[in-house]
Amino acid sequence: MKVMIVWESTRGRTKAMAEAISEGVTSAGAEGILIEAKEFSELGDACALVLGSSTRMKRVLPMLKRIMSELPVLNGLPAGAFGSYGWSGEAPDEIAAKLTELGAILVDQKPIKAKDYPSDSILEECRGLGVRLVEKCSK
What we know:
Oligomer: single chain
Helix content: 25-40%
Strand content: 25-35%
Distance between the termini: 12 Å
Mean pLDDT: 96
């Protein structure tokens, strides 16, 4: 089982969250595929998808925004959204809305958000998201 974690980060904060999600995926017995947005090419055989972006000027960063516009219909694929922010934090909500629009099933009702650098409790939430995604893949 593979969970694809695609992220775009300006200061390493969102990257830290992506790495914590991958740790959760691995701890649950699956493979966490970490892909920086600029390296993403296709979803492949992933059983779940997580997208993350820092918020800049109240928006998702450009590379992840492009990926979101090019994703196919996700037909019930388990998914999650996350991201960091300094001021306003809209990007994770925008990602979650797009995933839902594409037919993905969000495993958490709300995306995970970190103001500035993610705290230990936020990183633990990220690990938990990874575990929950693997559980959904197994069903």
